[in-house]
Amino acid sequence: MVLSNKLVALIERNADQLTKRWLDIVRTHENTPTYHTYDEDKLYDRAFSVYSQLGKWLSAASTSEEVKTIYTELGGQRRKEGFKISELLEALLITRQVLWTKVESEGLLDTALHLNQALELNDRISAFFDRCAVYAAQGYESESP
């Protein structure tokens, strides 16, 4: 198994821990005030879904259309719930940051080969979250306030 697959497995295996860390941040971050009072269980479920399914979404097992549908709906839902677009995008950024902090903390990047494979994963993750941000913004814009 290549390191990037090991890292995806690590992320999925630690989905609960990552989700709790994400919740701690978005519920106190100055740029996500609506998240501070939003239903914690709903936030947990949505974030857990991202972390636990990341491997599927980064692989060929998931289509771009599936990801587009999920994040377009999320953007529209967030607008209906009263979130600002900047909060939604900040929450996505925090999702990616929490994920990468976990990868770095595991000490798996100890050789040049591992670093190269981790950079490959980082590129895949960045592209994934970039697409998610665009889809969420499109869904947000298409929803009436």
Topology of this protein?
Elements: H1 3-13, H2 15-26, H3 33-37, H4 40-52, H5 54-58, H6 64-80, H7 85-105, H8 112-142
Helix pairs in contact: 1-8, 2-4, 2-7, 6-8, 7-8
Short description:
This protein has helices at 3-13, 15-26, 33-37, 40-52, 54-58, 64-80, 85-105, 112-142. It is an all-alpha fold.
Explain how this protein is built:
The radius of gyration is 15 Å and the shape is globular. The chain is mostly helical. The protein is built from 8 helices and no strands. It has a single domain (3-142), classed as Globin-like (Orthogonal Bundle), CATH 1.10.490. The protein has helices at 3-13, 15-26, 33-37, 40-52, 54-58, 64-80, 85-105, 112-142. The model has no long low-confidence stretch (mean pLDDT 86). The relative contact order is 0.18.
**Remind me, CATH topology?**
Globin-like
What is the level 1 CATH name?
Mainly Alpha
As residue ranges, the low-confidence spans are: none
Named CATH architecture: Orthogonal Bundle
Largest sheet: none
Order of helices and strands: HHHHHHHH
- Helical stretch tally: 8
Attribute tags:
0% strand, 145 residues, 8 helices, mainly alpha, globular, single chain, Globin-like
